[in-house]
Amino acid sequence: MGLWARISRVFRASTGAALDRIENPELVLQQTIRDMRDRVPELNNSVAQVMATERLLLKQKENLETQKVEIDSKIRAAVKLERDDIATAYIGQLQQVTQDLERTEIQAEHAQLASKQALKARDNYVLNMKKRTAEAMQLISAAKQAKLQEQLAQTMDTFNIGDDSSTFDEMREKIDRRVAAAEAKLQLGSSSVDAKMQDIEREAMDIQLHDKLLEYKQSLGMLGTGTPESTKQIAAGSEPAKDDELLDQVIVNETGNAGQPN
Q1: Rounded to whole angstroms, how far apart are CA atoms 240 and 260?
Q2: CA pair distance 149, 51, nearest whole angstrom
Q3: What tens digit of pLDDT does each residue of 160-191 get?
Q4: What distance in Å separates the CA atoms of residue 196 and residue 187, rounded to the nearest whole number?
Q5: Which domains, and CATH codes, for the chain?
Q6: What confidence tens digit (pLDDT) does each residue in 106-126 have?
Q7: Which residues 6+ apart lie within 8 Å of 78 measured at CB?
């Protein structure tokens, strides 16, 4: 094999491979459909010309038949008038018209056959075009579906590679660490010395409020002249009493004062 032949083969192979990469089947099919549809007006024009020729020949045939009848009548009239010279001239015209009529009839028959064939060819082309168009639309739909499947496959490949999965795992780990740190800080803050001191301060405030309540009741004489030792201890703040226990103590004092003489 010569050098030029090898270079030509490599060039054609490279060109074919490049065309295969850039060739879009969907666009090619759409262009094919447009080309087939653009061909229909040309076919209609060709059929119309054939049919026009047929009609013209039929019209000529009709005219020649009329002329033949008229010439025949003139020949008969000339013969009756014993004008043989005129009758002979008309006979010559009749022979010429007869020859033209025979030739026109043959041409008209051929034109009629050509018209039928042209119409049949046009109809077959239209039917074939519709069939090819339907097939092309199906192929275009299949090409779109294949494209979507390719995109889906690429997306699934991305998930399989683990890029997005690793990102989700990394973000989940960071969020879990932040939540754990926040919970630890909250637990540490609730068990610290400051938190316990706040609890003691709230308890002391409750004791002061109870002491103030006892002072008001003492000033109003609701506790009587003799204050039991337990009440004094409560007033002194040796041990904070609950509201139900304080209420029971007040009721006992009221009952004791009512039993003493004035």
Answers
A1: 29
A2: 52
A3: 555 555 666 777 788 888 888 877 777 766 55
A4: 13
A5: 15-160 (1.10.287), 190-257 (no CATH)
A6: 999 999 999 999 889 889 988
A7: 84, 86, 87, 90
